User: Fold these one by one.
Assistant:
Number 1:
Amino acid sequence: MPTESRPLFVVLDGIDGCGKSTQADRLAERIGRETGQRVHHLREPGSTRLGEALRSLVLGRGFAPTASVETLLFAAARAQMLFELVAPALARGEHVVCERFHPSTFAYQAVAGRLPEADVLALLQRWAGDPRPSHVLLLELPAEVAAVRRGQATDRIEDRGVAFQREVARGFARYAALVPGVARIDAARSPEVVAQDVWWEVARALH
């Protein structure tokens, strides 16, 4: 019998091609099966009408926003998602699994985009800091391997190539060093093995 547990807000993050969507699908399904509670699988930026519109704007090839403008747009999409979807779901006792969150903005815009790290962290905390995730899991994969897995670039940020993604990977590692409680998972292994490690990180909080 499933056992009801306190609601979780789990973030899966990492460079493009690391397997976030696959692992988020698996995790959302298993949390629902184990607890019998509803699980919301969200993506960032996106999930709300405003978030999806901002996603098209910031990832589309029709514009070239600076790193600082990207940060503000991502923060706006995230704040709307937290207000509109995450906070109400948690209040109802439902779980949330989200692809991307603060680590992505820090890695892509602060580190790879050369913005002041403290300024980006402070902005995210002030304007998109509540509710906070119960778990932040980083799926780590070399940029070269991720590029092969991902295939042809599909948006403006992926267009920047492997050298940029190496900087992004460095940014994720930097985030994990700065922010307590981030779990780092080797995503170079099979999806089944990675999923088991993801589940191990989350399962301890279910009861």
Note: The mean pLDDT is 95.
Number 2:
Amino acid sequence: MYLGFGVAGIPWFAGLNAGFGYIMGPTGGYLIGFIIAAFFIGFIVDRYIRSRNFIGMLALMLFSTFALIYIPGLIQLYLWMGGSIGFWELLTMAVLPFIAADVIKTIIAAGIASSITPKSAYGREVDAGL
């Protein structure tokens, strides 16, 4: 919904931007990665009870942040820049300045998420009987 409404014109992307062109810009890959990460975390947490504790949630969120969000974001940024930048320059510009804040936000989000998710089976969890 976040991405769909932003593409439809609600200005809630960074800098109060909106529209389809924003998705095609330098940060669009991060937004697409965010959707992939949300589906991945939702799928895992829904299927595995063990992922609902703090450590499990933290691991899922760190993986999602640094693999599922950063990788599509870096690929799109690299392509948007016409491939004219080296790998180290890309990391220096688009990853390194954000690592500390992302780790802190991930720890906070994992704490909140693990505290509000049920710790017992409520559906068809794979590890319900273990």
Note: Residues 54-80 form the longest helix (27 residues).
